[in-house]
Amino acid sequence: MENTINGIHHITAIAGNAKRNYNFYTNVLGQRLVKKTVNFDDPETYHLYYGDKEGTPGSILTFFPWEGIQTGRRGARQATEIGYSVPKGSLDFWVNRFEKHNVIYNKVAEKFGEEYLTVLDPDGLKLELTASKTADNRLPWETDEVKAENAIKGFHNVTITTNKMQPTADILTGVFGYKLLEQNVNRYRFITDAVENANIVDLVEVAGEVAGHVAGGSVHHVAFRVANEEILMQYREKIAALGLHITDKIDRNYFYSLYFREPGGVLFEIATDNPGFAVDESVEELGQNLKLPAQHERFRSALEKSLPKLF
């Protein structure tokens, strides 16, 4: 984990009703609410972070829940599937759990020698629970109903659907240091060996696929992980040298970020490990209180009244 892209940092998606989103990810999937804050650019909307006990990069799925937002459409130029890693032998547990909670899922299938279960969240976001064929020793968050032997470990992969895979592949291999691991028909699996988990990107090439529409139930962006700000800015130079527009460094309180749109149309972020989610509350208290950036602290009273109650 030196001057490299260290796999996926987090993935951000769009939801509708905030309480429904919270109930699904914490109660059904058994994830921890790691951070309850607001969209820094739209502070009347939550930004909710779900993940493991300490909010480890590679485990964090975040949401902007906009009440009443229209439903998106999966298609090209999008991240279309989010893959979680679960223990081998746990898929029957998840099938039974999804039936109990009336969650839409498909029967267990297989790709690249791994069994996986596809499920839709309440907004239609497509998730996959994959029993990885490689060891995953990450310690999951446990709840009363979802114990470690079945619990989600963190990300396994993310899938991007594209009309032409090579320009995106060039970013993954030429800039981010990924390599092509294997191919099955039109699905190309890229991996980085900089980290052991949350290190896979699948590109699915469908030449005639209509571009998707990012709205409710869609991935907004995929964030890749670097160790610190110095490395972050090295990547800024690399990407700018390719002629791609990339933002200046942005302080997101829990990490520093750069954003750019890769040639295939998906919004990529590069985010630092530092300072982490325990910078403004202890690990034990993560997600319990509304945390606001300094620029919005003066609106706390009004926001606490207007934002929907989650619990």
UniProtKB/TrEMBL annotation:
CDD domains with a match to the protein in the record: PcpA_C_like, PcpA_N_like
Domain VOC stretches: 7-132, 154-273
Molecular-function annotations in GO: dioxygenase activity
Coiled-coil stretches: none
InterPro entries: Extradiol_RC_dioxygenase, Glyas_Bleomycin-R_OHBP_Dase, Glyas_Fos-R_dOase_dom, VOC_core
UniProtKB keywords: Dioxygenase, Oxidoreductase
Ranges annotated as spanning the membrane: none
Protein name: Ring-cleaving dioxygenase
Organism ancestry: Bacteria, Pseudomonadati, Bacteroidota, Sphingobacteriia, Sphingobacteriales
